[in-house]
Amino acid sequence: IIGGLLLCLTIVGVPFGVQCFKIAGLGLFPFGKRIEHDSASAGSGCLGTIMNIVWFLVAGVWIFLSHLALGLAAAVTIIGIPFALQHLKLGMLALSPFGKRVCSDR
To answer: SS3 string of the chain?
Structure first.
């Protein structure tokens, strides 16, 4: 959330800050949520692809690797397997958050 607030201080960083808030919201309440491709969002299309590449190079790969490591560590026990699955879901969102939407499972 702090990174998202800092990114929102600049005009160029606002879209990236919004994606930080999306990841933080899913990290706070990950159960009962799923990630869908949203072709109607502003982050889809050619511009979204460019922003996903920038995101991947700057932050996405590191966030993904941290969630992958945490997921592997949580999967060691039977109780940790649901948490490991949530870490993998967060990691996949962290790779390319533009053009995706978090919605609830119903």
So the answer is: CHHHHHHCCCCCCHHHHHHHHHHHHHHHCCCCEEEEECCCCCCCHHHHHHHHHHHHHHHHHHHHHHHHHHHHHHCCCCCCHHHHHHHHHHHHHHHCCCCEEEEECC
Structure confidence by residue, pLDDT tens digits, 20-63: 999 999 989 889 899 988 887 777 788 888 999 999 999 899 99
Q: Is the backbone of residue 20 left (phi > 0), alpha (psi -120 to 50) or beta?
A: alpha
pTM for this predicted structure: 0.82
Is 92 exposed, middle or buried (CB count within 10 Å of its CB: 0-12, 13-18, 19+)? middle
Asked if the model's pLDDT at residue 106 lies above 90, the reply is no
What the block records as the tokens of 68 is 């992958």
Distance in angstroms (rounded) separating the CA atoms of residues 93 and 22: 9
